[in-house]
Design brief:
This protein has helices at about 30-40, 55-65, 110-125, 140-145, and strands at about 10-15, 20-25, 70-75, 80-85, 95-100, 130-135, 150, 160-165. The protein is an alpha+beta fold. It is globular and about 40 Å long. The chain starts with 9 loop residues before the first strand and ends in a 13-residue tail after the last strand. It has four helices and eight strands; from the N terminus they run E-E-H-H-E-E-E-H-E-H-E-E. It has one domain (about 10-165): Aminopeptidase, CATH 3.40.630.30.
């Protein structure tokens, strides 16, 4: 896995003035992350995730936390958000996922986490990132469009979006000076 350099934890004041802590996932977080997904609503709508059936959901979550680079957002010790980026091969176009627990949506948390993950994708050498979103999920689409994700492919119930991180030309480099 690629080494991520970032100053953790990140504190974020959401639109309701709540202090949200964002940091990398650790194995100790699994019970709290599982609790977030067990109480997450609605289940199964976004490309079938989080899965509705508890056993399937547990297997999916175990796979995500072992295969993706994950960050969590917490409030008062409870995990209220989770994002993952498949950095197993950053030369490919990694998949991005994000879930924000009900009661914490529309507060800027998803937008802020997506900006962090965009920077992490850049640091990891990714050229682009993709995700799948339900066409009717206008809240999530707004978040992704703010981060410059663009629709790819045809219109359907589920749509793919793509974010260009780096120009594909090796001559084009980001100037950080």
């Amino acid at each position: 896995m690629t080494e991520i350099t970032f100053s953790w934890p990140v504190e974020y004041k959401d639109k309701k003035n709540r202090n949200i802590i964002i940091r990398p996932y650790t194995d100790d977080d699994f019970p709290l992350l599982k609790e977030m997904y067990d109480t997450f609503e609605p289940k199964g709508i976004e490309a079938g995730i989080p899965p509705i059936e508890p056993h399937t959901r547990d297997k999916w979550l175990a796979s995500i936390v072992s295969d993706f680079y994950n960050i969590v957002a917490s409030y008062k010790g409870r995990i209220i958000g989770h994002a993952g980026l498949d950095l197993s091969n950053p030369n490919l176009c990694p998949e991005y996922l994000i879930f924000i627990k009900q009661g914490f949506r529309d507060c800027g948390i998803g937008t802020f986490i997506t900006k962090i993950m965009k920077e992490l994708a850049y640091q990891s050498g990714c050229q682009k990132v993709w995700l799948t979103v339900r066409s009717a999920n206008t809240r999530a689409i707004r978040v992704f469009e703010k981060a410059q994700f663009r629709f790819k492919g045809g219109i359907d119930i589920q749509r793919e979006m793509e974010l260009l991180i780096r120009p594909s030309s090796s001559r084009s480099k980001r100037n950080d000076s």
